[in-house]
Each structure stands twice: as C-alpha cells, then as structure tokens.
Amino acid sequence: MSFSFKLLKSSANTKARLGEIQTPRGLIPTPVFMPVGTYATVKAIRPDQLANELKPPIILGNTYHLYLRPGHKLVQKLGGLHHFMQWPGPILTDSGGFQVFSLAKFRKLKKEGVEFQSHLDGSTHLLSPELAIEIQESLGSNIMMVLDECLGFPVTEEQAQKSLDLTVDWAARCLMARKSDSALFAILQGGMYPHLRRQCFDRLQELSENASHLTPHTSRPFDGYAIGGVSVGEPMELAYKIAESCTEYLPPDKPRYLMGVGMPEDIVECIDRGIDMFDCIIPTRNARNGMLFTPEGSLYISNAEHKEDPRPIDENCKCYTCQNFSRAYLRHLMMGKEILSSILNSIHNLHYYLNLLVEIRLAIAEERFPEFKKDFFRKMIPSPLEGEG
Fold first, then answer.
1. Contact indicator for 6, 252 with CB cutoff of 8 Å
2. Residue 23 region, left (φ>0) first, then alpha (ψ -120 to 50), else beta?
3. Residues of 325-339 as b/e, b for ≥16 C-beta within 10 angstroms?
4. Catalytic residue at 48?
5. Arithmetic mean of pLDDT, 243-262
6. Element containing residue 226 per DSSP (H, E)
7. Which residue, among 115, 145, 110, has the nearest Cα to 127 in the 3D structure?
8. What is the C-alpha separation between 67 and 228, in angstroms, rounded?
9. Does residue 330 have a pLDDT over 80?
10. Pairing of strands 256-258, 277-280
11. Residue 160, C-beta contacts closer than 8 angstroms, at least 6 positions apart
C-alpha cells in the first residue's frame, strides 16, 4: 500500500489532531514521536527490544551520516536500511541538510547544492538535491525529506529570504529527482519571520500542485510538510509561535512535522498547536548522561540522593528498567560508567516518550486533551531546556 494520511479527529477546543499515516511498512498513528537512529541504530537499544518491547510506530535515519559511513550504495547492496539494521517498521530519513550546516568542517552554498568537508576525514563532497534523493531512495526510506538550508538563530530577514529562495529551488529539484514510491515531505524555512514562512509554503504548494508538469511519469505532489529551522537556539516560545502560525495554513489533509523538537513539554505544547510528528535525540542522549524523565519532571540519577534509594525511576512506569531495577542500582551503574547504564536508562526514556504519545492520542480521542495538558504541567517540575535534536 502506498503512502496516505487520514485525519481522524480534530480537538474541539484546541488545534490538536488525531490521524493515521499509512505506509507500505505499517500504520503510524499521529501525533507520533520518532526515535532517532542516526547511524542505523537507536543508540543503546537492541533491534529486538526496539521492535518487540518499545514498539515505536516509526524511527528516523540520518542521510548525512549513512552517506559518509558506511555509504548508501553499500546499504542498498546489503538489502536496504530496514534489513541492514533489522527494523521492520517505517523509517523517515532526513535530507542531511541540517548535519551539513551543523557538523561539516567547511561548507559553501552553491546553486547546485552545498559543498562540504566531512567531519570524519575532511574529504570534500557536494550534496545536491538530486544526491539527497538518491541516497534516501537507496536506503529504502519510507518518508524522505527535501534538501533545505537550515539557518541558525538569529538571522536577518534578508538572510532568511535568500535561504528560503534556495530551499524552494532545491525542493523543486527533489520533486523532479524522485523515482521511487517513497513519500516526500517539503520543508518550510524562513527563519523566525512568519510572513516568510507563509511565502515559503505558498511557493511549495504551487510546486506541489504543478508537480505532474515538472517531469513526466515521476513527479507527484508533496506528501506532507515539515517545519524546519526551529530548535536552533531561539527561545522555545518563539518556536511555538512559528509552529502555530504555520499550522494556520498548512493543509489539514497532510501530516505536519516539526523537526528536531524536543523536550516533553515542547511536544505537548506543539501538539496543542496542531503538529503531528516529532523527532529528537534528547531521550537517548540524555539517558546516556543520566537524565531520566518522569511525569514529575527529570531526575539526575548520578545525584547522591539516589545512592540508597530502593525505588524505581517511576513507580507507575511499566518499562523493563522500572519493573526490575532500583534508583540505587542505576546510580551505581552510572557512577561506574557501565555500558548497562546507557541501555537501561535509554529503555526508560524511550518508553516514557512513546507512552506519553499514547496517552496524548487517547486524550485527543476522548476529547480531554485540554485537561490532559493542564494535568501534565501541574505535575511537572520544570526541566532545564536541552539543545536541538
């Protein structure tokens, strides 16, 4: 079955939405959080744990990293990314644009694409829209992203306009380059300027509506829209404002993806503003650093207060870690720098995120999302904001 999106319900009192994305690899209920599998692995989690215990509806793979190592052609030769990493469900791949702009030792924008030096060995590469699509199709991605230019914060309106123009041009080339049945999402850029975001959408929408005229046989409309260029150093209230302004005009019959967000409170706030899809490295990265999520906020397992604590991280949590291990044991592992520390902490944090989304979907279905959100923030001790995803 090809890609499709069905809007099941819109909240009566908020912009929260309940939907389903159908892919050849399975059904994705929305709103959804996508664990990040940067190097064809969700860090510190075995593939069978991921598929059979945590059961995320979809995960994310990274185009930039897999292109540089081990190479998309090798992954294709070995059966594609799903087989390579033994993950049976849907995979979304980013275009690699964010990593080029955040990790590359050197980068130079050209009309053809972006020239950059690998952060691994300094080798020079040109990532073009056509190559970004080729890589993602070689990997066997179910949802691909167009190549875009991701700006930091702050930028001038002139810089944002120039980036927007390039992003739209590259999006058109990505549409023309697509040869597979994989879905393709456009990305809205425009910095923190709402009118530029609207301009970007209008131009992308025009491209999408005229996709069949771009090139015979292969071009189809965009299957969804992403909001890029957030969680790049701006105050989160500004990111909320951008997300809310974009959902005012994004098509209701296509999924909306807020890239690289974020903390649990950010996800709840942005679902309230009409966002359907999220990804972030925070749950696994923070797990490796000993920051664990609970309904009351985050706790740092290395703190001395946990040294003799017999309780689990969260007494109401059903994850493997909380059902079997004490805070004292988890602190012992963390202080000893044991590999098991990263594993058990990551299981818990991912379970927390995925269960949070289950609870949110149920709340939307039962028309009690405003009450859910109020209770969520009432119980939570504020967490320190973490970096971008």
1. no
2. beta
3. bbbebbbbbbeeeee
4. no
5. 97
6. strand 224-227
7. 115
8. 21
9. yes
10. parallel
11. 151, 189, 190, 191, 192, 193, 196
94, 148, 266, 272: the catalytic one is 94
Torsion on CA atoms 275, 277, 280, 283, rounded to nearest 10? 100
Q: How far is CA 95 from the centre of its chain?
A: 12
**Nearest to 147, CA basis, from 122, 120, 175:** 175
In the numeric block, which tokens belong to residue 168?
A: 């739209």
Catalytic residue from among 148, 223, 266, 279: 279
Tokens 């209770």 identify what position?
375
CA pseudo-torsion sign 119, 150, 5, 8 = positive
The amino acid at residue 94 is D
pLDDT tens-digit series, residues 112-160 = 999 989 989 999 999 999 999 999 999 999 999 999 998 889 999 999 9
Measured CA to CA in angstroms, residue 115 lies from 105, 122, 170, 263, 268 at distances of: 11, 12, 14, 32, 37
CB-count burial class (<10 Å; 0-12, 13-18, 19+) for 130: middle
What b/e string do you get for 39-53 counting C-beta neighbours within 10 Å, with b at 16 or more?
ebbbbbbeeebbbee
Count Cβ atoms below 10 Å from residue 308 Cβ, excluding itself: 10
Helix (H) or strand (E) holding 339: helix 339-365
Check if the beta carbon of residue 96 is closer than 8 Å to that of residue 127.
yes
3-state helix/strand/coil string of 157-214: HHHHHHHHHHHHHHHHHHHHHCCCCCEEEEEECCCCCHHHHHHHHHHHHHHHHCHHHH
pLDDT tens string 92-124: 999 988 887 788 778 888 999 999 899 899 999
Residue 121 known to be catalytic: no
